[in-house]
Specification:
The protein has 240 residues and is an alpha+beta fold. The chain has two helices and ten strands; from the N terminus they run αββββββββββα. The protein folds into two domains: 78 residues; 124 residues, Glucose Permease (Domain IIA) (Distorted Sandwich), CATH 2.70.70.10. Strands 1, 2, 3, 4, 5, 6, 7, 8, 9 and 10 form a ten-stranded antiparallel β-sheet that branches.
Length: 240
């Protein structure tokens, strides 16, 4: 006699199902909280970055302002220094001009000394009354000192034909300087001239044995009052 065998489907234990649910639930919670944590973390990071960027920007602005302030101060100091230097230079030039006006100098710059004061000989009616500077024709002749032109013209400016074209300048110390044998006269009577100012060009006019400048220092504007010009120039600190 056969027996009926009834097969029943096997059932999985409930425990694993519950565990799976719990795991699933746990996963969901983990995922949810993980996302939240990630969101919270992202929010915190963004705020911190913004704060940090703001701080860096503020520092940069402060550094730039400080640099600009220093640059402005340096520019102001440089401007003040420049103004002081210009002022000092102007004063130095004014002092130099004043000193030059008060000083004496040789009547020509480059020369060879020839006939000296007091020399005798057939070339002169009397002893030589000045100092000769041998220079080429056309050499610039300068006022040995500031003063007023009292004679200027041919015939020695009135002192005689032996001097050729000549100039006489009156100076504040009561002395007179004379420049003779000129090829050209570039001042006129009444002109006020400064030390070193060009008054004419050297030549070979009048009683002259060759191109040169005849230079005298006088006590009056007229011929016959000459003194030793080299000794006088030495007394006013000019060596020739």
């Amino acid at each position: 006699m056969s027996k009926r065998v009834t097969f029943q489907p096997s059932r999985r234990p409930s425990m694993p199902r519950v565990s799976g649910a719990v795991v699933a639930a746990g996963l969901g919670v983990s995922m949810v909280f993980g996302a939240g944590a990630a969101f919270a973390s992202g929010t915190t990071g963004t705020a911190g970055t913004a704060a940090l960027a703001g701080s860096v920007t503020a520092d940069s602005v402060a550094q730039q302002a400080n640099a600009q302030s220093k640059a402005a101060a340096a520019a102001k100091k440089a401007s003040a220094d420049t103004a002081e230097k210009k002022k000092a230079d102007a004063k130095k030039k004014a002092d130099a001009a004043k000193k030059k006006a008060a000083s004496w100098e040789a009547p020509v710059e480059k020369y060879v000394l020839s006939a000296t004061y007091g020399t005798g000989g057939s070339r002169w009616a009397h002893k030589h009354s000045g100092q000769d500077f041998a220079v080429p024709i056309g050499t610039k002749v300068e006022a040995a000192h500031s003063g007023t032109v009292v004679k200027a013209g041919p015939n020695g400016g009135g002192d005689g034909p032996a001097y050729g074209n000549a100039i006489v300048i009156k100076h504040s110390n009561g002395k007179y300087s004379q420049y003779a044998h000129l090829s050209k006269i570039q001042v006129k009577i009444g002109d006020h001239v400064k030390t070193g100012e060009r008054i004419g060009l050297s030549g070979n006019t009048g009683n002259s044995s060759g191109p040169h400048l005849h230079f005298e220092i006088r006590t009056t504007p007229n011929y016959g009052s000459a003194i030793n010009p080299v000794s006088f120039l030495n007394s006013v600190h000019v060596s020739i």
